[in-house]
Every structure is written in structure tokens, then in C-alpha cells.
Automatic annotation (TrEMBL):
Keywords: FAD, Flavoprotein, Signal
An MF annotation (GO) of this entry: flavin adenine dinucleotide binding
Names of the cofactor(s): FAD
Name of the protein this chain belongs to: Pyranose dehydrogenase
TM regions (residue ranges): none
One matching Pfam family: GMC_oxred_N
Domain named Glucose-methanol-choline oxidoreductase N-terminal: residues: 306-320
Coiled-coil segments: none
Claim: Flavoprotein is one of the keywords in the record: yes
Signal peptide residue numbers: 1-19
Binding site for FAD: V262
Family stated for the protein in its record: Belongs to the GMC oxidoreductase family.
UniProt-annotated catalytic positions: H541 (proton donor), H585 (proton acceptor)
Length: 607
């Protein structure tokens, strides 16, 4: 059913001129029927676009979001509960069997809620290294992507905010590289964990790769420092709470329709001067068996469904590898074999060591009385351990030259960039039934493994085939092993002597081993590798499935202006576009590319 061009609804346009968030198509029809831009996905990037494009009052924007509202989704609002699973706000994906992970199929979380993955993520705010952006500039041939040139977009995104406990943050970050006038709150931890002093002490005792870094968001992330997070005085700050906050959704030219699944993008009749197919008609539905609607963007469709949703929609729309699409019975419109390929993620491993103290956060997860008590403290006073995520400090480190020499290539973007990361937790986020722990989450941040997002079915309501192929490249396994060895070195610092129980070399291997007190003997690399493959999962930092490359590149999906190669009227703006994964948790990079995309789109249309 096509209702867009029906003049029936024009009369009511005059009656309903205030914008809002709707959950039914008929509410939208009453509001307006014509849009300049249709944004697919009200997630991290989509919310930025919606906000920035509606700064011009004459530009009409529609956002179509599959998930529901973030308002009242309390479990997503409480920072500490980000480690718990929230199926109601999740796409509930599972990967295909992962060879590099001992053949396991693992859950693959994606936010199914306004704000997208920024509404469910761990809130780590890490920009990555200057090299990451300089490499993007190099690969795309667009100097606008250099670290220096994207600083303006970090500043537009970030609103530096005091932590919940208003402690003195002098010496914990560098104010000169932060912005007070952006939209999305960024903060330091607002609850003092008992291990904080020991962590800083370790940096002093060990030096070297553990050296204290005043601010890891300076473009030079190497070393150990305080984690910054997207938290606003104790509440999660997501793309929905910030960019789609009430002062913005009140704009009469912004319309957001939630609980709505985009199924395909369709070809329109050519506009005068078109040389390429024009894909600016969006097909959507509110349930699998319900009617399919269509809406046309008079200017452009902006695809921001994330690194899983975006390739699925592109493939279902006939944009991808033509022979692959034909084999599925989909009529190819443009042959772009890179769609859904080069899928990249950061492998993540949660390791725990038993400790002698009991001032950890372990009990919060297993004592419901304590949890309830702390929720009351959080909601009444905006204080307590629930105001923070599960990590207060990070270490970014590089492999040493002799290890790197075995590989002949350095997968990092440059010498200022890390190969792996350690995140320190005052407890076990995998919720051991008893005991008290220090947790170190290890991640490979310059992985060489590449995977795919392909179709299992042409039904847009069916899940795609998701294969991050984690640890399929030997480099990634080696880097994870080194990250583990670095964790052991960290805990072997004198300051931890009384606190960490047993020999840090071995006790993390398996909870069962801890219980059985199996021989405290340093494991062989083979044992470490088996442990790694058995226990590694995803960081949910999916990128690369619609890569940005130079105009004349032999591969890639979008050009440096986000326009899909070979078509008119369609751009992709989300985590899919990174041709290489940044050495960072991916939300800050996504915010930055979305801010620049908005700038480019506005200047293209003269707004
Ligand atoms: C559990 C988890 C923890 C993470 N932790 C961190 C962290 O601590 N720090 C960090 O920096 N990064 C983290 N990340 C990664 C980061 O959140 C993402 O890289 C980023 O949010 C991706 O932004 P995006 O705009 O590409 O996609 P998303 O924010 O996921 O937005 C995509 C949106 O499109 C919608 N959508 C998809 N398909 C359709 C469709 N067919 N029709 C309509 N709507 C659709 C989705 O519902 C979603 O709202 C985490 C991610 C997850 C899932
Ligand atoms: C939309 O408008 C029609 C006709 O004016 C009205 O009957 C209907 O109730 C309206 N729907 C909503 C959701 O406001
Ligand atoms: C995931 O499962 C939960 C129920 O466990 C459900 O509420 C939610 O809608 C599901 N997500 C999707 C995208 O279907
Ligand atoms: C990218 O980097 C390579 C290697 O340093 C260099 O040869 C090339 O000229 C660079 N390309 C651009 C467009 O900057
Ligand atoms: C914060 O600490 C710094 C250094 O420790 C000190 O110089 C400064 O006066 C303190 N600020 C406040 C407001 O107490
Ligand atoms: C396109 O898909 C076909 C069939 O799946 C495959 O054989 C071919 O290698 C792919 N082409 C490219 C360029 O990846
Ligand atoms: C994947 O990325 C590499 C560069 O990292 C590129 O050479 C290759 O062509 C890409 N593959 C596809 C299918 O896009
Ligand atoms: C924590 O340890 C202290 C000192 O050993 C002890 O007095 C206290 O009862 C313990 N608290 C809990 C909750 O176990
Ligand atoms: C929680 O509180 C209830 C009632 O006050 C009490 O019976 C129960 O033992 C408590 N549970 C724990 C784990 O402390
Ligand atoms: C969280 O936001 C709510 C409004 O949604 C506000 O009332 C509350 O004070 C905030 N809590 C904290 C801890 O900042
Ligand atoms: C490099 O790392 C390896 C493995 O951890 C270690 O055996 C070696 O001693 C290190 N080399 C140098 C020069 O630090
Ligand atoms: C793919 O489709 C088959 C057949 O419908 C189904 O059994 C399987 O679970 C699907 N796989 C995934 C990953 O959804
Ligand atoms: C890895 O998993 C396999 C299969 O479950 C098990 O036999 C093996 O003991 C595990 N190894 C380690 C080190 O966890």
C-alpha cells in the first residue's frame, strides 16, 4: 500500500503540526506525508543525523526504528546493569558456529530500542588513536578524515559532565581536549572502587607499557589511565537521551516512528539528470504479516541500521554481489561485492582472579536485597556503585617488536595505536556464584580476522547469518595470549601481593580450576590458547560491512561522502562504513562519522 502520494492526508497536516514519537503508522499519516530525508534506524548514528538535519526548520525528517522507546526502559538507564542481558531491548542474534572459538555459536547483542546499541552498550568512551583516523583519510583519499580534521566533530558530540560523586577530577583527564558544548555527556567514574589506588600504584611500580596516561582520548591512547564513559550524572547518556532528548523531538519537522521494521529500499523513477538508479523509496512494516508501506524521501534515504541491519537491508534491496543475490532469487540492482564482507569485531575475554578482600561489586549481582537497596540509592540520591559501568581504568598496549616481527605486517593503524586492551573491574561480571574477584577483560583491538553478514532468508524479518570469524587469524590469537600475559604481569606488581590470591599465572584459567586448586604452574601456550578459544566472545564492536573507500577503489560500498557507489539518493551512515576497525570501543568513532555526515549532507543541500 502506498500512501505517500495520496493527497487525502494533506488536510490533516495543518491540524497536526507538532512532531513526536509515534508507534503507529496512522498517527504518522495524520502528522505529515512528505519527507526530505528518511532515516532508517534511530540508533547511534541515525539519532545524530535526525538531530542535526532538523536544525533547519524547513527540512522534514522521518526516522524509522525497529525497536521501542527508551523512555521508561529503566534497566538500560542504570549504568551498572549494562553487563546484564536485556532480551527485550535486544535483537537476540546468535552467530554461526565460530571455528576460532572451538566451534561455539555465541550471542551477538545489538540494541533493539531507540538509541540503538548506544542504549545498551558498556558506555566506554574511547576515541581511538590519531592513526586510526589518519588511516581512514588515507584509505578514502579524503583528508577531512584525519585526526586533526575530525576534532571539530568530537567537540560537537561531547558534553563533558562532572561525575555523579562530584569528586575532584584534577589529574584524571586533560580538560584541554574536551568540550563542554556538545550534546552527549562524557564523564569519569562517579563511585570510588576499592581497587582504584592499587591500579594507579601499579602504573608507578611497573612503568613501561603500564605507564600512566593522563588522557587516553588525546589521540595517543597507549598506557594506563582512567576510563571515560557516556554517563550523565549517574544515568546512561545514549544517542536517544541526548540527540533525541525532549528539546529535539519537540521540533515540528522531526518525526520518529518506532516499532517499525524497514524491509527494503526500492528504486524510484529517475529524476531529471539521473545517470544511476535512484533508491529513495523505503518499504516498511509494523509486523511480519501486516501491510507493507512505502515512503519516499524527496532528497535522500539515510541508512543507519548498524553493521548487521545495514548489509541485510542492502542485500534484500538488490545491492550487493550480483551473482550471490541472483542465487537467492533477489534481482540485483547494483553489483557491490563488498556488502556484508570484511565484517570486523574485537574479540573479548573476561578473566577473573580471586582476591582476599570483600569490597568488590560481586555481591551486587547475587544478593537481590543489596541490589534493590542500591537501586533505591541510585534513584533517590543518584549515587552508589550503580552510577558507573563495570570498569574504571583501561590499559592500551602494543606487542613488542620481536613478536610483531613474526608477522611481517603491523595490523595497527600506526605506532601510536594499540594491539590489545585490558579493562580492570572490581569484581567478576560473569557472576561467579561465590567469592570475590578482580576482573580483567582482555580485547584485541587491531584484529586481522574478517567475517561476513549474509542472508539466511530473503524474509526481512528473519535473522541474517552473522559470522564475525573471531580468532580465525593467528595474529588475533597471539595478541590475546599476550594480553593475558600482560594481565598476569600487572597483577604480579608488588602492590597486589596481599590482595590477589594464589599465583596470578594460573588461577584465572577456569573457575573449576580455582575451585579444585589445580597446580599453580605456569600454563603452556597451548593451554592458554585452548582457554582463549573456549571462552572468547564478542565486544559487539561490529564494523566493516559497508566499507568506505576512495571513489576509484576496486572494493567498498560507499565513497567518502557516505554515498552508496553506483546509485543515487542513498547514503549509509553507521558503524558499517569503517574499512578498518578503530583501536577503540566503537561508539565515539560512530558519533564522529555521523556528525561529519550530517555536516556533509547539510552543505550538499545548502542548509
Ligand atoms: C552490548 C554492547 C556493548 C557495547 N559496548 C560499547 C562500549 O562500552 N563503548 C563503545 O564505544 N561501544 C560499545 N559498543 C558498540 C557501540 O555501541 C556501537 O558500535 C554503536 O552504537 C553502533 O552504532 P550504529 O549507529 O552503527 O548502530 P546502532 O546504534 O546499533 O543503531 C542501529 C539501529 O537501527 C535499528 N535497525 C536495525 N535494523 C532495522 C530495520 N530493518 N528497520 C528499522 N530499524 C532497524 C536498530 O534497532 C538500531 O536502533 C557496544 C555494543 C553493544 C551491542
Ligand atoms: C487521524 O486522523 C483521522 C481523521 O482526521 C482520525 O479519525 C484519527 O483518529 C486520527 N488518528 C490519530 C491516531 O490521531
Ligand atoms: C528478543 O526476545 C525478547 C523476549 O525474550 C523480545 O521481547 C524481543 O522483542 C526480541 N527481539 C526481537 C528483535 O525480536
Ligand atoms: C596512503 O599511505 C601510503 C603509504 O604511506 C602512501 O603511499 C599513499 O600515498 C597514501 N595515500 C593517500 C591518498 O594519502
Ligand atoms: C583539586 O585537586 C587539585 C590537585 O590535587 C587542587 O590543586 C585543586 O585545588 C582541587 N580543586 C578543588 C576544587 O578542590
Ligand atoms: C560473488 O559471489 C559469488 C557467489 O557467491 C562468489 O563466487 C564470488 O567470489 C563473489 N564475488 C566477489 C567479487 O566477491
Ligand atoms: C576487504 O578489505 C581488504 C582491505 O583490507 C580489501 O583488499 C578487500 O578487497 C576487501 N574485500 C571485499 C570483498 O571487499
Ligand atoms: C568483609 O571482610 C571484613 C574483614 O575481613 C569482615 O569483617 C566483614 O564481615 C566482611 N563483609 C562481608 C559482607 O562479608
Ligand atoms: C533479604 O531480605 C529478606 C527479608 O528482609 C531476608 O529474609 C533474606 O534473608 C535477605 N536475603 C539476603 C540474601 O540477604
Ligand atoms: C536520571 O534522570 C532522571 C530523569 O530522567 C533524573 O530525575 C535523575 O535525577 C537522574 N539520575 C541521576 C542519578 O542523575
Ligand atoms: C617480547 O614478548 C615475548 C612474549 O611475551 C617475550 O618472551 C620477550 O621477552 C619480549 N621481548 C622483549 C624484547 O621484550
Ligand atoms: C537459517 O534458516 C534455517 C531454516 O529456516 C534455520 O533452521 C536456521 O536456524 C537459520 N539460521 C539462523 C542463524 O538464523
Ligand atoms: C575447552 O573446551 C573443551 C570442550 O568443552 C574441553 O574439553 C577443554 O578442557 C577446555 N579447555 C580449557 C583449557 O578450557
Amino acid at each position: 500500500m502506498t500512501w505517500l502520494n495520496s493527497s487525502l492526508f494533506f488536510a490533516s497536516l495543518l491540524l497536526y503540526c507538532s512532531a513526536a514519537i509515534y508507534d503507529r503508522v496512522d498517527q504518522l499519516r495524520n502528522a505529515t506525508t512528505k519527507f526530505d530525508f528518511v532515516i532508517i534506524g534511530g540508533g547511534t548514528a541515525g539519532s545524530v543525523l535526525a538531530n542535526r538535519l532538523t536544525e533547519s526548520a524547513s527540512v522534514l525528517v522521518l526516522v524509522l526504528e525497529a525497536g521501542g522507546s527508551n523512555i521508561g526502559a529503566i534497566p538500560t538507564q542504570i549504568p551498572f546493569f549494562c553487563t546484564l542481558s536485556h532480551p527485550q531491548y535486544d535483537w537476540n542474534y546468535t552467530t554461526t558456529p565460530q571455528e576460532g572459538l572451538s566451534g561455539r555459536e555465541i550471542p551477538y547483542t545489538r540494541g533493539f530500542i531507540l538509541g540503538g546499541s548506544s542504549s545498551v552498550n558498556g558506555m566506554f568512551y574511547t576515541r581511538g588513536s590519531a592513526d586510526d583516523y589518519d588511516r581512514l583519510a588515507n584509505v578514502t583519499g579524503d583528508p577531512g578524515w584525519s585526526w586533526e580534521n575530525v576534532q571539530i566533530y568530537f567537540r560537537r558530540n561531547e558534553k563533558w559532565t562532572p561525575p555523579a560523586d562530584h569528586h575532584n577530577t584534577t589529574g584524571q583527564y586533560d580538560p584541554s581536549i574536551h568540550s563542554l558544548d556538545g550534546i552527549n555527556s562524557v564523564s569519569l567514574a562517579g563511585f570510588p572502587q576499592s581497587i582504584n589506588e592499587n591500579i594507579i600504584r601499579t602504573a608507578i611500580e611497573l612503568g613501561g607499557i603500564f605507564q600512566y596516561n593522563l588522557d587516553m582520548n588525546s589521540g595517543k591512547p597507549l598506557g594506563l589511565g582512567w576510563l571515560q564513559t557516556t554517563i550523565d550524572g549517574g544515568n546512561r547518556s545514549s544517542a536517544a537521551t541526548s540527540y533525541l532528548g525532549p528539546e529535539f523531538t519537540r521540533r515540528p519537522n522531526l518525526h520518529v516512528l518506532i516499532d517499525t521494521r524497514v524491509t527494503r529500499i526500492l528504486q524510484n523513477r529517475p529524476s531529471p539528470g539521473d545517470r544511476l538508479p535512484r533508491l529513495n523509496v523505503v518499504e516498511f512494516a509494523q509486523n511480519p504479516d501486516g501491510p507493507r508501506y512505502q515512503v519516499t524521501a524527496s532528497r535522500e534515504v539515510l541508512l543507519s541500521a548498524g553493521a548487521i541491519g545495514t548489509p541485510q537491508i542492502l542485500l534484500n534491496s538488490g545491492i550487493g554481489n550480483s551473482s550471490y543475490l541472483s542465487s537467492l532469487g533477489i534481482t540485483p540492482i547494483v553489483n557491490l561485492p563488498s556488502v556484508g564482507q570484511n565484517f570486523t569485531d574485537h574479540p573479548r575475554l573476561v578473566n577473573n582472579w580471586p582476591v582476599s578482600g570483600n569490597r568488590t561489586f560481586d555481591d551486587i549481582y547475587r544478593n537481590s536485597n543489596l541490589s534493590t537497596f542500591l537501586q533505591n540509592v541510585w534513584s533517590q540520591d543518584g549515587k552508589g556503585p550503580l552510577v558507573d559501568t563495570f570498569v574504571s581504568h583501561l590499559l592500551f598496549a602494543r606487542l613488542n617488536a620481536s613478536i610483531l616481527g613474526q608477522f611481517g605486517e603491523d595490523p595497527a593503524a600506526g605506532v601510536r595505536s594499540a594491539h590489545y586492551e585490558l579493562g580492570f573491574s572490581n569484581g567478576d561480571i560473569s557472576v561467579a556464584p561465590t567469592g570475590h574477584f578482580i576482573g580483567i577483560t582482555t580485547r584485541v583491538v587491531s584484529p586481522l580476522s574478517r567475517g561476513t553478514v549474509l542472508l539466511n532468508s530473503t524474509n526481512p524479518f528473519a535473522a541474517p547469518l552473522i559470522s564475525p570469524n573471531l580468532l580465525s587469524n593467528e595474529f588475533d590469537l597471539l595478541a590475546m595470549r599476550e594480553a593475558l600475559k600482560t594481565s598476569v604481569k600487572f597483577l604480579a606488581a608488588p602492590v597486589w601481593k596481599e590482595y590477589v590470591l594464589g599465583n596470578p599465572d594460573t588461577v584465572f584459567l577456569q573457575p573449576e580450576m580455582i575451585a579444585a586448586k589445580l597446580g599453580f604452574k605456569a600454563p603452556q601456550d597451548e593451554q592458554l590458547d585452548a582457554y582463549i578459544r573456549n571462552n572468547t566472545g564478542t565486544s559487539a564492536h561490529a564494523v566493516g560491512t559497508a566499507a568506505m573507500t576512495g571513489q576509484n577503489s576496486s572494493f567498498g560500498v560507499v565513497n567518502s561522502d557516505f554515498k552508496v557507489k553506483g546509485v543515487e539518493g542513498l547514503r549509509v551512515v553507521d558503524a558499517s562504513i569503517f574499512p578498518f576497525i578503530p583501536s577503540a570501543h566503537t561508539q565515539a568513532p560512530v558519533y564522529v562519522i555521523a556528525e561529519r555526515a550530517a555536516d556533509m549532507i547539510k552543505s550538499f543541500w545548502g542548509d
